[in-house]
Design a protein that fits this description.
Homodimer. The chain is α/β, with parallel strands linked by helices. It contains 16 helices and 13 strands. The structure holds uracil.
Length: 427
């Protein structure tokens, strides 16, 4: 590998020049090995945030991050693979019903997931509220479970894109998370290294999402789709609304319970709609076009895969889920139509109740979270319960209630509420 100098690479990007392939390969490799210092990489990340990267730079940057670690290979499996990645939202439990549903349709789902940080929940934190369930699997266990059950949701191992792990932690504390080239390469390096044959991206837009503006969400989506295609992974993105939280719950055990309702053929309409839309895209990406996933929810086969998937990771699908020790009900002050329920306000409240963490490694409360009893567009009457807050530590109610202030509105009966859930499709 050609040797470069960190200051030369930083200055090139500071002055608005594209980085060469050789500079990119060197800087990612040297940073992973510790030869480029954190302060140098933070200066480079800020220069990238300010001056951007063109498509070939982003593609090379992603390839260099993939090359920093191992690459999994599922080509020996007897069925095709498809995965989904969401850029993160509030009440976004979709992975839980989606993975077993797609597996029930004949496509294997290797869903290597993360934990929540801040107001967006983490899939592993949610599943860990199921008694006995284990997030960490070896690569051999992942392969065996994919072959036997068809779906795995587990922790991404340290071997996948270690450069991203280091860089993401640095971006988190240097105000450089929001750069589209860095977000796109961060997400796609992990997904491509994971070895899925096809990928569906759920790019969230709205108050509770990374991307608050539609144009930025579209740009992120098309950047990631191009990266996937450059790497030979069939990739499609749906841009979906995250100004309203998904379903009726945000937290850990409360979201598992709602996911089980969907698998049982019920559950909130928006969760079912998004689960089916993503399932159809995953199946099409994997070349399966003759199965309707709605049938697999209705006939119980998705639920059967869920139960097997939980058992395979030592969880008990029949065990009662943890319930928080304390609850607090917020009632509707007037009658009318709920016209707005803000995703960020609900996400912050769930986080402050103990469903999320403030630093990496902190424990979360399995029973903590928010349950809402009406969705935008629903009629509410004065005095009815609007939201129920759950926590083991009642001293948290005050700050959670503060974050909900101004987070919902009741308007005139019949007033229009909310935006459509599915906003765009980018392929
Ligand atoms: N998720 C990631 O994995 N990386 C980012 O940069 C942002 C969200």
């Amino acid at each position: 590998m050609t040797q470069h100098d960190a200051v030369e690479v930083i200055s090139a990007k500071r002055d608005g020049h594209p980085l060469t392939d050789s500079q990119i390969d060197w800087v990612i490799d040297a940073y992973t090995r510790g030869d480029v210092a954190h302060e140098q990489m933070s200066a480079l990340a800020m220069a990238i945030l300010l001056n951007g990267m063109d498509r070939s730079e982003i593609s090379r940057w992603t390839a260099a991050m993939i090359a920093s670690g191992e690459r999994m290979d599922f080509s020996a499996l007897s069925r095709p693979t498809a995965d989904k990645h969401s850029t993160g939202g509030v009440g976004d439990k979709i992975t839980l019903p989606l993975a077993p549903l797609v597996a029930a349709c004949g496509v294997a789902v290797p869903q290597l997931s993360g934990r929540g940080l801040g107001h967006t929940g983490g899939t592993l934190d949610k599943l860990e509220s199921i008694p006995g369930w284990r997030a960490t699997l070896s690569n051999d266990e992942i392969m065996a479970q994919l072959e036997r059950v068809g779906a795995v949701i587990c922790a991404a191992g340290d071997g996948l894109a270690p450069a991203d792990k280091k860089l993401y932690a640095l971006r988190d504390v240097t105000g450089t998370v929001e750069a589209i080239p860095l977000i796109a390469s961060s997400i796609m390096s992990k997904k491509i290294a994971e070895g899925t044959g096809s990928l569906v991206l759920d790019v969230k837009v709205g108050t509770g999402a990374f991307m608050k503006e539609l144009e930025k969400a579209r740009e992120l989506a098309s950047t990631m789709v191009a990266l996937g295609q450059d790497a030979g992974v069939h990739t499609v993105a749906l841009v979906t609304d995250m100004s309203t939280p998904l379903g009726l719950t945000a937290g850990n055990a409360v979201e598992v319970a709602e996911s089980v309702e969907v698998l049982a053929g019920g559950g909130p309409a928006d969760v079912v709609e998004l689960t089916l839309a993503l399932a159809r895209e995953m199946l099409a990406g994997a070349g399966v076009t003759d199965v309707d996933p709605a049938d697999k929810l209705a006939d119980g086969s998705a639920m059967d895969v869920w139960r097997e998937m939980i058992r395979a990771q030592d969880g008990d699908p029949d065990a009662p889920l943890p319930v928080a020790r304390e609850s607090h009900v917020v009632t509707a002050p007037t009658s009318g139509t709920l016209t707005r329920l803000d995703a960020m306000a609900v996400g912050m409240a769930a986080w402050r109740l103990g469903a999320g963490r403030t630093k990496q490694g902190e424990a979360v409360q399995a029973g903590a979270g928010v349950v809402w009893h009406a969705r935008p567009g629903d009629r509410v009457t004065a005095g009815m319960p609007l939201l129920t807050l759950h926590t083991d530590t009642p001293e948290r109610f005050e700050r959670a209630l503060a974050s909900l202030e101004g987070g919902w509105e009741i308007g005139d009966p019949g007033e229009r509420a909310g935006d459509p859930l599915l906003i765009d499709r980018i392929a």
